[in-house]
Amino acid sequence: MNKIFKIVLISSFINLLNISASFSSIKNNIIAKVGNEIITLIELENKINTTLILTNQQINQENINKIKTLSLKRLIDLKIKKSEVKKYNLNINDSVIQSHMQRISQDLSIDPSNLKKFFKSSMISYDQYKEEVETEFLWQRLIAQIYSSKISVSEDQIDEEIKELQNKKEKIIEFKLAELEVNYDNETKNELIRRIKDSIKEIGFSKTVVKYSISTSALKEGELGWINSKSISSKLINIIGNLKVGDISDEVVGAETITFYKMLDKKINETSKNVDIKLMRQNIISQKKNELLNLYSRSHLSKRKNTTLINLQ
């Protein structure tokens, strides 16, 4: 029998979190149990402070209050993901982790060799952050391993679409996009949209992605790379087609998620003869597979939440 999924974000409990020195004596207290995993108060404080520092925001009570509930939810998700990947014999790809850490160093305008020192001087845990990044990458690999056989993309149909495109000699538009995706519920949807828009104005799109996005692309500040206009739906084309470079779309509300897009770059090929057909084919297949993997990732996590006992202490 499945365990009952229990998670109640009790505001009075979370409001205990502050940055006063008197708080230090209870930092190691367990504040939540997620299956066989635990979350301590010091983990939550570190998660909040790391998010604020990596998004160039001050650590003050106002900013803490804005993200404390989200930070706890993310830690719960991470604990569930950690428990799940432990069941499989997956190895860490050190080069991928190193590449991510180098990007973080670049964003902070520091030498990668000084990243640990930066975390230490900022009084946040490098080890906790690295473990979270490793868990996210292992989760992505796990989802691909479990569901790759279920992802069906008709390559013959794609070839036919490309051939038809060549015959029409239409203009080909390519977009370099970034996305910001969040879960929502009907009660908090409008407030969440307002909060994200305010955050984008305050700290920029990429930092807001780091702060809020649940998509696997969040590890790359939301970047999706170059996407051919023929590889995406007409609905999305209507949303992003008229965006100028640097523009951000209005919110796109789905069944469970809200997504914002940013136009990073755009280019137009006057004729399909100028297009690298092989590369376009690879991009279309990759895009369709990534969309399906993201769906499976959310579904798998949701299933594990529904069978995990989660208690706040």
Q: If you compute it from the alpha carbons, what radius of gyration comes out, rounded to the nearest whole angstrom?
A: 21 Å
- CATH class value of the largest domain: Alpha Beta
How would you sum up the global shape? globular
Mean pLDDT: 83
Largest sheet, described in full? Answer: 4 strands, antiparallel
The name CATH uses for the topology of the largest domain is Chitinase A, domain 3
Task: Give structural notes.
The protein is of the alpha+beta class and 313 residues long. Helix content is 51%, strand content 14%. The strands form two sheets. It has a four-stranded antiparallel β-sheet, sandwiched between helices. It has a three-stranded antiparallel β-sheet with strand order 2-1-7. Residues 1-16 and 18-25 have low confidence and may be disordered.
What key phrases describe this protein's structure?
313 residues; alpha+beta; Triger factor/SurA peptide-binding fold; Chitinase A, domain 3; 2 domains; four-stranded antiparallel beta sheet; three-stranded antiparallel beta sheet; 11 helices; 7 strands; disordered N terminus
Helix and strand topology:
Elements: H1 11-14, E1 30-34, E2 37-40, H2 41-54, H3 61-85, H4 94-108, H5 115-121, H6 126-147, H7 155-168, E3 172-183, H8 189-203, H9 205-212, E4 223-228, H10 234-240, E5 252-253, E6 257-269, H11 277-306, E7 310-312
Antiparallel strand pairs: 1-2, 1-7, 3-4, 3-6, 5-6
